[in-house]
Amino acid sequence: MLSARASALRPGLAWVLPRAVGPLVAGVVVAFLLQLVVVPILGPFYEKLMMDIGINCLLAVSLNLVNGFTGQFSIGHAGFMAVGGYVAGAVTYYGSFVLWGSAAVHGGFLGGGDLLFLLGCVVGGLFAAGAGYLVGLPSLRLRGDYLAIVTLGFGEILRVLLQQTGDVIFVPAQIEQASAFTLATSLGGALGFSGIPFYTTVFWVYVMLGLLLVVAYRLKESSEGRAFLSIRENEIAAEAMGIDTTKYKVRAFVLAAFFAGIAGALFAHETGTTLNPRELGFQKSFDIVIMVVLGGMGSISGALLAAGLLTILPELLREFSDWRLVVYAVTLIVMMRVRPQGLFGIREIWELGRPRRGAQEKRP
Amino acid sequence: MTKLLQTLFDGVAVGSLYALIALGYTMVYGILQFSNFAHSDIFMTGAWIAYVVSAAAGWAVIGGDTPPLYSGLVALLASMAFCGLLGFGIERLAYRPLRKAPRLNVLITAIGISLFLENIGQRKELFGTQPQKMPQLLPDTTLFTVADVNFRIVDLTVIAVALVLMGVLQWLVFRTRLGRAMRAVSYNIPVASLMGINVDRVISITFVIGSTLAAAAGFLYVMKYPGALKQPADSTWILLGLKCFVAAVIGGIGNVRGAMLGGVLIGLMEMFGAAYLSPHMRDIYVFSLLIIVLLVRPAGLLGKATVEKV
What we know:
The complex is a heterodimer.
Chain A: H1 2-9, H2 13-42, H3 44-69, H4 77-100, H5 112-136, H6 144-163, H7 172-177, H8 180-184, H9 202-221, H10 223-233, H11 235-240, H12 245-268, H13 282-295, H14 300-316, H15 321-338
Chain B: H1 2-32, H2 39-56, H3 71-95, H4 103-121, E1 142-146, E2 149-152, H5 153-175, H6 177-187, H7 189-194, H8 199-224, H9 235-251, H10 256-276, H11 282-296
Antiparallel strand pairs in B: 1-2
Helix pairs in contact in B: 1-5, 1-8, 1-9, 1-10, 2-3, 2-4, 2-8, 2-9, 3-8, 5-6, 5-8, 6-8, 9-10, 9-11, 10-11
């Protein structure tokens, strides 16, 4: 009887397949439409703004995996971004020289250059994930503020190390002779890594964002992700339920760092940005934390909305730029008093109308 | 040998500065269990107030008369008084309403206060967006030389003032009724209030003391490095604050003596690293030391490991 019911409930393949890949395909289609239809209408200024929003969304949603889902307070997210950005920048910059003899944008849409860029993103993300693993390990022993300080320390150490790297090499003959180690340590130092080709487009930003959103949302609704949430709610209880809390905490760090690395890679290849260690310091990390907190810790759509708002707001307040950051600070303080759980708390936008989770039991 | 002794002396001088700031972090943490990220901005404000006072008194005129001997004391007391008030106000307006809120919210509020102080300080009505050069309120001479090590008046003053203030604090915390109340509150707030201690008042006083110490450190800092009076939102201030927080954590946060020890350790570490390894990597030594200490002794050098109860 029971098994018959179970098999009746199991959806057929025709239903599973679109559910599994549907959101991803939809993300790619939306990104494509944005690039092809919306960008030409709005022009370059809004194109840049759209990319900035997308990148900040990537950062906020990925940090939300650690801060919001797992409840581990990390304030070194910009460090992962820096790892991804620098690694990806080195891959495309020096890679272009080796492949094509110059660091100009090579090939059109999905051409050789785009593929190299994609490779850079993935490699950058993987390096950042490795860094995330290293930073996540201390969470074995450290809780709360201590962990926050370690993540902060990691970001600062990274910043100083990056500032010590040598000048960017831009003579093809020198690049051919240089060893891989020399190239890896010639990242511009304190002046910043300039000359990275501009591969980032609205399309790529939103494809990556779509990917992250699918991962994050699936995570929130899966048993894997419930393990994250349980650590946030009560670590001791989670452990008592047989959840390997250390393992899941490290996983959250690795996953978040991977996407932060990709965001860094996109940032590095954006038009008009010079990758600079100073810009990716703790102030950037604080910015991302503020986005997550404003949106509500644990709310994916909240993080998206907050990241969007906080990217647009400075543009709107440009006329009052003197007072902008003061207003920003006061907003933050007032927000913590009147709505400490953020705009949406742990709920998503579409769940706002519903009563709070746990208020009424769902019938199976 | 000379280099070793000189580095040792410099390390102790810088370290006692760090210790003063670290005390503010550790006292607040000991009582409220949150890291007051706005502390570095109080330190910054202290440094700037010292400058503003000297400028108003006409001591900052380049090529003007040498400022009188009491000028340093006036600037020091003025910045301590102002920052004491500031610390009181911040606690009263921003932190007290959040006494029952999750710690993360308090932390975010601290970041908000920090942003606020930095950016309001950048207003042209206040400190402005330009770095300034602090006037020499103390004579810049070497008092005496031992084994080729120069003991400058400035450095000796830094150490002396820091020692006096830490001595006062030590006496206050461990020898007075108020100190006993503070220790009781940091031990257990509800029980302390049942014993008739006015918890809010004790917390206020803690903030005031921490802030005055930070202001003193700010004054001493710009005395020691007159060219380092950067604009309020410059990241050097936050970085300094972070280092001192690290000092507090290394010593065992919540522990007054630990903060002093941690501050001096960090100062020595930085100076020795800069002198014997590479001067560009100072921040790395500090943060690496932090990570190592936390991994080996998560509660810090003098901290007691706490057992988590369910």
